[in-house]
Amino acid sequence: MSKRARVVGLSTAMVFLAALLVAGIQRMFDTPDLYASADDPPAPATAGVLTYHNDVARTGQNLDEKILTHQNVNVKKFGKVGFFETDGLVDAEPLYVPGLAVGRHHHNVVFAATEHDSVYAFDADTRVLLWHLSVLGPNETPSDDRGCPQVSPEIGITSTPVIAREAGRTVIYLVAMSKDKQGSYFQRLHALDAASGAEMPGSPVTIEAKFPNLRGKTTFDPKEYKERSALLLENGVIYTTWASHCDLGEYTGWVIGYNAATLKRANVLNLTPNGSDGAIWMSGAGPAADAEGNIYLLDANGTFDRTLNSSGFPTRGDFGNAFLKLSARGPKLFVADYFNPHDTEAESGVDQDLGSGGALLLPDLVDASGTVRQLAVGAGKDRRIYVVDRNSMGKFNPAGDAAIYQTLDSALSGQVFSMPAYFNNTVYFGAVGDQIKAFSLVDGKLGAEPVSITSAHFAYPGATPSVSANGDADGIVWAVEARGSEAGVLHAYDAADLTHELYNSSQAGGRDDFSDNKFITPMIANGRVFVGTLTGVMVFGLLPQR
Q1: Could you tell me which residues come within 8 angstroms of residue 68 by beta carbon, excluding any fewer than 6 positions away?
Q2: Among 31-35, 187-191, 270-274, 327-331, whose mean pLDDT is lowest?
Q3: Do the Cβ atoms of 3 and 119 come closer than 8 Å?
Q4: Span 167-174, average pLDDT
Q5: Which residue spans within 103-229 are E strands per DSSP?
Q6: Using CA atoms, how far apart are residues 109 and 127, in angstroms rounded to an integer?
Q7: Looking at the domain that runs over 4-542, which CATH code has it been given?
Q8: What 3-state class would DSSP assign to 29?
Q9: How far apart are CA 174 and CA 195, in angstroms?
Q10: DSSP 222
């Protein structure tokens, strides 16, 4: 199958006829002009969503949402307003670019990527398809599920892409898995012109890597991995991180960076080079980054070396089941600091690892002594909330976890297959089988008990909340409840009081139903909420009022 890019408006005649049609519809329904002059100003400014969970700290908050409020998000005024149909599962979070020039016209654009190795660009306001691209190579198909039902029946684009918006160009980066007729598997990094879908110069590149170990070297095998975690763009480098297929096969923990401008490989790190396992998947969450360019992630079950050097680091370089801080200072990517629980080996042995959750970086906080703290928070399958000091994470001590900044042992009632969100000095967690819980930050620490909880319980895989607000006003916590074979449910809660549910999509009978999917993070932009489903992206917003 050859690459193809389809852009709306293939000829002058078609554009002219479409313009006449749209003009007539406008007079009837007062809709926006899709074919305004190129000299017209772009669409009204609003915040874009260019990366997973809104920012590289992975807070999940959009503080520029001026349309959705506590007063209008309710079952009478808010609901399903559209659907973007795609050719496969949308496991990646949709992304949003406001005022993008596509041809001669400006659009607010939603991007969706599918497991069928397709990328779509839709006008967010009119729901017109702007372009569609298949990133499959000649005579290729998406990968089979590799005997693992976690991503099935095919594996294409699983991770959330990342968008770079620079002067003169907007580029969307993504990783796609495919298979040819000879049974060879490929992982490729693509850089696409967001305005047209065209591959940028040098794109795509095949992902390849080697890393030294005590046996000589270990080699990245594309068939053993999928890119589940969202991509990170940091300091001009696109970071890819690699998950296994159901813990099957021989795999280790790879982090591979590529120069965003040239697509040349920038750095490589293996987190378990002399051991096994230690994949990075975080239920779709992406690695986080701080202002200094350090990278934070949670590693899954795998080899951890209990023998430490004089600096407290594993002598063989194996960091399975760890909360990690990576640094790219200098020519190499390396582990700058870490935390492993005292019972890390026991946890890995029974698949109770940290790596099922994502890391969230908190803004600078002041503790009870007046000291400024730079913290990160995360949780995994052991039901503990870990808060690490990013400047001294705690490393490993088999006698206990006293060196970590804070641990909450019984705050969550289930395992975490998601990541938290942050808003207004509050952290929101959605564990499996648990309610979404809000924990306040007081004197630089998380409160031991939640300050509010939802009435709804969220079955597997729990929920990754997102937050919309206009500054610190009208804060709304959004979460998707998975219900297996039943329709999924979109919930909206008052961020200051989770007992106050503003809306859920089951309140309107079948009007707002949508097909269920897992590891879904809702994206909110410019008065609409976008939810990935099995067959496309569902769009929620304010309903037409008579």
Answers
A1: 78, 468, 474, 476, 524, 527, 529, 542
A2: 31-35
A3: no
A4: 93
A5: 105-113, 118-123, 129-134, 140-144, 154-155, 162-166, 169-180, 185-193, 205-206, 210-213, 216-219
A6: 9
A7: 2.140.10.10
A8: helix
A9: 15
A10: G
Mean pLDDT in the chain? 92
Domain segments of the chain: what residues? 4-542
Structure tokens that stand for 42 in this block: 């772009």
State yes or no: pLDDT of 262 exceeds 90.
yes
CB atoms within 10 A of CB 332: 10
Which residues are CB-contacts of 461 (< 8 A; sequence separation ≥ 6)? 283, 417, 418, 432, 482, 518, 519
Dist. CA 407–CA 417, nearest whole Å: 18
Read off the tokens for 280: 């990075």
Name the one residue in this structure whose structure tokens are 């106050």: 500
Beta-carbon contacts of residue 201 (< 8 Å; ≥ 6 apart): none
Cα(493)–Cα(503) distance, rounded to whole angstroms?
A: 7
Nearest to 254 by CA among 229, 289, 278, 283: 278
Q: Strands of 406-408's sheet, edge to edge?
A: 360-361, 375-379, 385-389, 406-408
**CB within 8 A of 10, min separation 6: which ones?**
none
Structure tokens at 538: 């569902």
3-state secondary structure 365-386: EECCCCCEECEEEEECCCCCEE
* Tokens, residue 523: 């994206």
The Cα–Cα gap between 359 and 59 comes to: 9
Length of the chain: 546
| Pairwise CA distance, residues 445 & 458, whole Å | 26
Q: Specify the pTM.
A: 0.92
Name the E strands within 485-522.
489-494, 497-504
More confident residue, 14 or 312: 312
Give the residue-averaged pLDDT of 133-160.
Answer: 97
Q: If phi over 0 gives left and psi between -120 and 50 gives alpha, with beta otherwise, what is residue 123?
A: beta
Using one digit for the tens of pLDDT, what is the confidence trace for 502-529?
999 999 999 999 998 999 999 999 999 9
